[in-house]
Amino acid sequence: MAQSHGFTEVDWLSRKNGAAHHTQEYPGPELVVRRGQAFTLVLELSRPLEDQETIIFRVETGNCLAHAPCWSTSRKICLTENTVTVSIASPPNAVIGRYLISTRVSSRRKQNDRKLGEFVLLFNPWCPEDDVFLDSEEERQEYVLNDSGIIFRGVEKHIRAQGWNYGQFEEDILNICLSILDRSPLHQNDPATDVSRRHDPIYVSRAISAMVNSNNDRGVVQGQWQGKYGGGTSPLHWSGSWVPALCWGGPCHTPCHRTLGWGGPCHLLGAAPASCFSVLRCLGIATRVVSNFNSAHDTDRNLSVDKYVDSFGRTLDDLSEDSMWNFHVWNESWFARQDLGPSYNGWQVLDATPQEESEGMGSAGRRSRQSLLPGVLPVNADYITWLWHEDESRERVYSDTKKIGRCISTKAVGSDSRVDITGLYKYPEGSWKERQVYRKAVRKLFSVESSGRRTRVRRGGGRGLWRDDLLEPATKPNITGKFKMLEPPKLGHDLSLALCLANLTSRAQRVRVNLSAATILYTRRPVAEVLHESHSVQLGPEEGRKAPAWGDLNRPTPYGAGSRAGLPSILCSFPGKKGVLGPAVVGVAVMVKVTVVNPLLERVEDCVLMVEGSGLLQGHLEPQERASVQFNITPSKSGPRQLQVDLVSPHFPDIKGFVVIHVATAK
Q1: How far is the first Cα of the chain from the last one, in angstroms, to the nearest whole number?
Q2: How many of the other CB atoms lie within 10 Å of CB of 37?
Q3: What angle, rounded to 10 degrees, do the helices at 201-211 and 173-182 form?
Q4: What range(s) does the Transglutaminase-like domain occupy (predicted)?
Q5: For 119-157, what is the HEC assignment?
Q6: Is residue 53 annotated as involved in ligand binding?
Q7: How far apart are CA 574 and CA 425, in angstroms?
Q8: How many helices (H) and strands (E) in the chain?
Q9: CB within 8 A of 489, min separation 6: which ones?
Q10: 298 assigned to active site
Q11: Which residue in the list 194, 298, 351, 646 is annotated as catalytic?
Q12: Is 429 assigned to a binding site?
């Protein structure tokens, strides 16, 4: 009787396949390859194959078997009489995920089955037949393989770069990304259908976008919208992606708590690997972060951001349901739109902010950026300020058609510079085309009844908004005013301002000036009033005059340091040669020096310096003291690597710095 056939060893050729498939950065022993491209295995046999024997390979993911001709194998090549090398190719539209591969050796008399092991199949932006194909190698390096980058934040006139570690190649992150798909309601409700649809980047991106928040599906990150962090971690202390992902990746899949902070959920969900951004990049879809400054949050969908104020200019929270955020972050992912047609291929907008639901899911996703070009919220709306009178009437006192959707930004390919892509989202502000699109949208929203009566959109508190309120320009004012900074602002000191008034008429006017100022959150919601004054000013015909005003920026607020206005974002610096005191080489310790400056005129207690999540400095800083700390790091990977530093203190919000270290390969 012939000897039973079997395999004594399988060589996955991980290094060779990893280099060919651009997956060598994924850690661990498991083979990771990309679809639409062949990979090679070497099988060691227990005995030579007989002439009538055949080997059948079986690959399956979930409960789905991948049948020929979808998958193919090349003719076997015998290196020795007991070794066979086989090349296995998946189709460019194969389902992505973890696969089990097994063999069946058949002859006339019997057959022998053997499980070889598991491998992971990803999307392939290098394959022209794959829907995620990206035709630029530089962009593939940037948007797929780069594991660190920049998120732009701040305000329109002071845009700042925040270094971030995306971490898609960190230990266990790939496994967690696949678990996110398996834990989604789509999979829990119908596993077979869900797995069978994972060939489609449109479907996968939507599932991931919904799962990054825990609003309704026990997702990765749980929102806290009140500015307090009880039971969770402040986003101000996050500089990388792998910590929240590993937090969720525990045995209970518990959401990581976070709150609004300076960037809110949009900032975190745009950058964490538990977000659609890094998860999709980890799964092989080119993805980038986009920041929109002066971002509209229009609660009643009337194409305007309506702010209601009292006679002192103080925002009336119970009436002002809309808001304009300093900035908002979303993601763009690159793939074809087989559902819409080739003109919509390219960058697709994915917004994982869990305040909104779309089709019953806590996300807004997969809309082609091309379809956004006419201009929609949050990038194109009118900003209107209404004066609310005691008799509950209102008066429009300010209207700005150019304020919303400014400096839409993303990181440049191959550098940390900022690229302005506003023109890809909307027509130039104030142009005839932009106003035409806006007016068309308003008329579509506010329909006119056949009787000729205007249609009114109801709002909370019994008020409403007529269509003509949006289409008609504001009345030209008789007096204008703007603030001018008399001295550069200093943290811990009063802010010295002057209100410059100008009479635009040819007659003298007496003006009562009510001044107020408050610290605000990044949503521009007021927190604490720091200025409240009233003056009477006489202005002659076409006369201009300055009225001084002062505000206390050192006053504590109910939300602590996180709500203070005017604080600098980066106090951590790297002196010398980018803070690295020597050459950086893989496997060799190098000294890094970080300098921290206390700008306050008071002692600052309980400071902790965090580097990649590790606490390195504890103690205090004397008034205006400069302190330095040195420590060793041992690089494990070559190439440009980003080191983030975070100073944690109850006196400072969001004190971060970063440096790019170029690590050489060990000789």
Answers
A1: 55
A2: 19
A3: 90
A4: 268-354
A5: EEEECCCCCCCCCCCCCCHHHHHHHHHCCEEEEEEEECC
A6: no
A7: 37
A8: 11, 37
A9: 495, 553, 566
A10: no
A11: 351
A12: yes
Tokens of 272: 């964490």
pLDDT tier, 612 (very low <50, low <70, confident <90, very high otherwise)? low
Q: Is 543 annotated as a binding residue?
A: no
In which element (H, E) is residue 85 found? Answer: strand 83-89
Q: How many CB atoms lie within 10 A of CB 76?
A: 13
**Cβ count near 388 (within 10 Å):** 18
CA-nearest of 222, 262, 283 to 33 is 283
Using one digit for the tens of pLDDT, what is the confidence trace for 139-176?
999 999 998 888 898 889 889 998 888 888 988 889 98
391 is catalytic: no
> What per-residue confidence (pLDDT) applies to 621?
65
- Do 264 and 343 touch, CB atoms closer than 8 A? no
Query: What mean pLDDT value characterizes the chain?
Result: 76
Other C-beta atoms within 10 Å of 233: how many?
A: 17
Tokens of 251: 């045995």
The amino acid present at 66, given as its one-letter code, is A
Strand, helix or coil for residue 560 = helix
User: What are 322's two structure tokens?
Assistant: 């809309």
Q: Which of 266, 276, 572, 607 is an active site residue?
A: 266
Q: Where are the beta strands (DSSP E) in 320-444?
A: 323-335, 346-351, 364-368, 382-388, 394-400, 406-411, 418-420
Full-prediction pTM beyond 0.70? yes
Strand partners, 111: 106
**Has 434 been labeled as part of a binding site?**
yes
Question: What confidence category does residue 643 fall into, taking pLDDT thresholds of 50, 70 and 90?
Answer: confident
Structural domains in the chain?
7-122 (2.60.40.10), 137-446 (3.90.260.10), 479-549 (2.60.40.10), 570-663 (2.60.40.10)
**Which residues make Cβ contacts (< 8 Å) with residue 427, sequence separation at least 6?**
373, 374, 375, 433, 434, 437
What is the phi/psi pair of residue 372, to 5°? -90, -10
Catalytic residue status for 400? no
**Active-site hit among 22, 328, 469, 651:** 328
